[in-house]
Amino acid sequence: MGERKISRVTVEVTVNGRRQSAELEPRVTLADFLRVELGLTGTHLGCEHGVCGACTVLLDGRAVRSCIMLAVQATGHEVTTIEALANEGELHPLQQAFVDKHGLQCGFCTPGFIMAAAELLERDPDPSEQALLETLGGQVCRCTGYEAIIESVRDAAEKLRQRGVGPLGLLAAALEKKAAPSGNGGGE
Amino acid sequence: MKPPAFEYAAPASVAEAVALLDERGFDAKVLAGGQSLMALLNMRLARPELLVDIARVPGLDSIEISGGCLGVGAMVRQRSLEFFPGLADSHPLLLAGLRHVAHPQNRNQGTVCGSLAHADPAAELPALAVAAGAELVIEGPDGKRSESAEDFFITYLTTTLEPAELLVEARFPLLPEGSGWSVQEVTRRHGDFALAGAVVTMRIADARVADPHVVAFGVGAVPLRCTAAEQALAGAEPGPAAWKEAGALVSEAVEDPLDDVHASASQRRSVAGVMASRAMEEAAARA
Ligand code: FES
Ligand code: FES
């Protein structure tokens, strides 16, 4: 059984600001492409059928489940993963808020929560309680009991508002900086 | 929990997609947003030989209001419709219903037409389509046809779509001037499939209920249009007595509801009636 010859597909996608291209079996999910092909293991896999949200990444700025999406479906689009958030060792305000407010215990769910929250705060810097719960309600955490996660996202929202920038705006700025050739011959 | 092997095609036109489906028959499956299909594949509950990804077909992602209808193309993501400018005014029923569909993280990928074609009886969109009197535009090897949502759903996960046919657009008539609407459901968590729910639209004319539409979902093999309840409501004086009577008729109309670990059959039956009564009350208040 299963000896059919399957032709491969070409996947061309921008991940965290970098163009990536690969020849893959069509059945490779976006999550496995990120984790196995690109080594971006910050995107976690929990249920692998779209329920837990551990695998949440941004596709053109929208939070999606990368376990129920094929890598080839992302061709021509931009994917952002948790790895894009920290800037040269400095945590992103969302990440820092999860540290400050104890928004994680084991941390398995955290990348998913942060990516889902990033979409929300980019859209709405000061989300209502209902909007917050609706978004975070799509993510599952087995440890924290959620209260601290909600607090973390509120805290991040406040910090971002103070800086007058959205979570993804901050990211775009950092990516540009990374991409720019260093002007001083590398003498940091 | 990984999908089985399949071939993949990304046709560039509806005609090409239909030709592929025609050639491969039951061995092919249409991939749109994938929010139902990919879960089935990962759990290996489905093993198609070929996935026909329609996301690269130009023009299928259009949303437009024309001829008194809101037309939603096959690749329109649920979330894109939710954010369609003016939807709160042009089709508040759909907006209210979409907010109950899974989670934003699923709606960002999932399509409106995909949910209709998947035909899960506990899903909101099929019930919304029936309540709104939607027309479904279907393209196949013999050309285009159009079918009412009410006739489209046959049973669990089964519609009148032939293997070589593609649902290309769902057309939702705009609600008549002065209509009230409501979507009510009971779920374990917000965003889960409904244990039971109801969609109601109506107008109030000369202090009487006019044009009532009552649809229950999550209680049978297809969205249940409750004609007995609609007849009782038509011309009735709006108020708790009318809602209660019509709600009881909804419970009565529910035959053989699902009976599982989430809710017993009798619970589903009674919740459907209560949801319908509440939806009537809210729809009347908005009318
Ligand atoms: S691993 Fe993707 S939703 Fe659970
Ligand atoms: S911190 Fe352990 S699952 Fe959320």
A few lines on this structure:
The complex is a heterodimer of chains A (188) and B (287). Chain A is of the alpha+beta class and 188 residues long.
What does this structure look like?
The complex is a heterodimer of chains A (188) and B (287). Chain A is an alpha+beta fold and 188 residues long. Chain A has helices at 30-37, 93-100, 110-123, 129-136, 147-163, 167-179; strands at 9-15, 18-24, 56-59, 62-65, 78-80. Chain A folds into 2 domains: 9-83, Beta-grasp domain (Ubiquitin-like (UB roll), Roll), CATH 3.10.20; 93-179, DNA polymerase, domain 1, CATH 1.10.150.120. A 5-stranded mixed beta sheet of chain A has the order 2-1-5-3-4, covered by helices on one side. The longest helix of chain A is centred in the last third of the chain and has 17 residues, at 147-163. Chain A is globular, with a radius of gyration of 17 Å. Chain B has 287 residues and is an alpha+beta fold. In chain B, helix 5 packs antiparallel against helix 8, helix 10 (227-233) runs antiparallel to helix 11 and helix 11 (240-253) packs antiparallel against helix 12 (265-286). The longest helix of chain B is centred in the last third of the chain and has 22 residues, at 265-286. Chain B is globular and about 60 Å long. Chains A and B meet through strand 4, helix 3 and helix 4 of A and helix 2 and helix 6 of B. The complex binds FE2/S2 (inorganic) cluster (2 copies). One FE2/S2 (inorganic) cluster binds next to loops of chain A.
How many helix segments of chain B? Answer: 12
> Largest sheet of chain A at a glance?
5 strands, mixed
Low-confidence parts of chain A:
183-188
Tally of helical segments of chain A: 6
CATH architecture of the largest domain in chain A: Orthogonal Bundle
On the 0 to 100 scale, the average pLDDT of chain A is 92
Small-molecule binders here are: FE2/S2 (inorganic) cluster
